[in-house]
Design goal:
Number of helices: 18
Strand content: under 5%
CATH architecture of one domain: Up-down Bundle
Structural class: mainly alpha
CATH superfamily of one domain: Cytochrome Bc1 Complex, Chain C
Largest sheet: 2 strands, antiparallel
Number of strands: 2
Oligomer: single chain
Helix content: 55-70%
Bound molecules: heme C
CATH topology of one domain: Cytochrome Bc1 Complex, Chain C
Shape: elongated
CATH class of one domain: Mainly Alpha
Order of helices and strands: HHEHHHHHHHHEHHHHHHHH
């Protein structure tokens, strides 16, 4: 094993004398690993590679991007049209971001499938779950930065979700937005988180994640070593695995480049907070499943779908190594864990697919809410359900925001929000049409034109309690 044979190793020798890295390096390069591996076992590496792509292209973009509501959009246009190869850089960053979310999720599913979350790899798993959420936050904060209609309204929808948190909702949402609605403050806030907070968090958690992988070695290696055949099917990490890894990186890079060159990152019209063009808000694609689910459940359960389910998901994911005490790793011997995960994956994929098909947040409301204009609406059949579905989270009998209880007719009448016969004078109409700011429901997604007209008709009738 003496390394003195080859003269070109002198640089390494020089370094080794000072730093003493040779033993570790040798151990790393020449440790025994299985000869043939499943490419799925390299998803972590693929994710890391895409992250490096994000860091490099992100740094390049930051040299031209100007984070303010006045300049953000133009600077993206400038990057796409004037900066040499700027559009490729932006497309690579855009596709890299989507790829990161997919790869991290796939990497996690693979880890689940092979049982890599079990002892002694619990910390690897938990830091991995944290990294998944960091990745989602990266995508979410980055989405706002182009400051076009799509990013503005997706952020509106996304920062709308915390409103459903009991008690704290309004504070969390205001904190995320830097106020009641999306403004230049939200943009600089998201930019700071995207550029400073998240990279730091990611490096910390990835450091722990990776250190734990090195310490406990990869599961496939452990399993190969444990086989009765002994070290027969094993090769050295260098050059075998290093070659396989290089091939994988080349393939991932080729796919990214292909996507970036063929499908361009969208840039719609500049963000318009008044939404005069009636752009339909669309959530980010990884929220599709949640929004699709909301279309099937009664509005009263919305908080459960928006806050409850994701919370349960976090608890289950983080706690998985502790809930699942079955020491077996083979998928066949874990029928319960496998079928539960199977049902969840199919449900999420199915809902995401349906959500993608019927894009757009249901702003007209399903079920009881009017989807066509009701000419002579009654309070109990037409108006109350709208308030229940779109307003009650903040304007319920116990919620204090706005001080207005929209679930009781007496409260609406006493506040005189809806009584003028010229409906345009009614505060209620002005608030839902956006004539009076902040527009209601606070932060959107706003009511559809037909729903607004139905409420207007009701006010024009004298806002009767019928
Ligand atoms: C996310 C929470 C939230 C939702 C949902 C919401 N509101 Fe509000 N609403 C508020 C807050 C906060 C205020 C006080 C805003 C202000 O003026 O600063 C308010 C104020 C109002 C006011 C003015 C009342 C007053 O006395 O100033 C009206 C009218 C109103 N909302 C109607 C609605 C209607 C109608 C809906 C449903 C279509 C709705 N709101 C949904 C939070 C909400």
């Amino acid at each position: 094993m003496s390394a003195e044979k080859k003269p070109r190793q002198t640089v390494l020798d020089w370094l080794d004398e000072r730093v003493g890295i040779k033993p570790q390096l040798n151990e790393l390069l020449y440790h025994r690993v299985p000869r043939s591996v499943n490419p799925l076992d390299f998803l972590g590496l693929a994710t890391l590679f895409v992250f490096i792509n994000q860091a490099v292209t992100g740094t390049l973009l930051a040299m031209f991007y100007q984070a303010s509501s006045k300049t953000a959009y133009q600077s993206i246009q400038y990057i796409m049209t004037k900066v040499p190869l700027g559009w490729v850089i932006r497309d690579l960053h855009y596709w890299g971001a989507n790829a990161m979310v997919v790869l991290v999720a796939a990497h996690m599913l693979r880890g689940f499938y092979v049982g890599a979350y079990k002892k002694p790899r619990e910390i690897t798993w938990i830091t991995g779950v944290v990294l998944l959420f960091i990745t989602i936050l990266f995508a979410f904060t980055g989405y706002l930065l182009p400051w076009d209609q799509q990013s503005y309204w997706a952020t509106m929808v996304g920062t709308w979700m915390p409103f459903y948190t009991p008690f704290l909702g309004i504070y969390i949402a205001y904190l995320a937005r830097g106020g009641a609605y999306i403004s230049g403050l939200t943009l600089t806030r998201f930019y700071a988180v995207h550029m400073l907070v998240l990279p730091a968090l990611l490096l910390i958690f990835f450091g722990i994640h990776f250190a734990m992988v090195l310490k406990n070695q990869m599961l496939i290696v452990e399993e190969a070593e444990a086989k009765p055949k002994g070290t027969k099917g094993l090769v050295t990490f260098y050059p075998y695995t290093v070659f396989q890894m290089t091939m994988l990186v080349v393939v991932v890079a080729a796919i990214l480049l292909f996507l970036a060159l063929s499908f361009h990152a969208p840039l719609l019209a500049p963000a318009d907070p008044l939404n005069k063009a009636h752009y339909t808000p669309v959530p980010l694609w990884f929220f599709y499943s949640i929004y699709q689910l909301l279309k099937y459940i009664p509005p009263a359960l919305d908080p459960l779908g928006i806050i409850g389910l994701p919370l349960v998901a976090v608890i289950v994911l983080v706690g998985l190594p502790f809930f699942d005490k079955n020491p077996r790793r083979e998928p066949r011997r874990r029928p319960f864990a496998m079928s539960a995960a199977g049902v969840i994956v199919v449900a999420v994929l199915g809902l995401t697919y349906l959500g993608a098909e019927q894009q757009g947040v249901s702003t007209s409301g399903g079920g009881t809410t009017a989807t066509t204009v009701v000419a002579k609406p009654t309070f109990s059949a037409d108006i109350e359900p709208i308030f229940q579905q779109h307003c009650a989270v903040c304007h319920g009998p116990t919620t204090k925001s706005g001080g207005l209880d929209l679930t009781s007719y007496a409260s609406i009448a006493s506040m005189k929000v809806a009584t003028p016969t010229n409906y345009k004078q009614a505060l209620l109409w002005q608030k839902i049409e956006g004539v009076a700011q902040p527009r209601m429901p606070l932060g959107g997604p706003y009511l559809s034109k037909s729903t607004i007209q139905t409420i207007a008709n009701w006010i024009a009738e004298g806002a009767p309690d019928n």
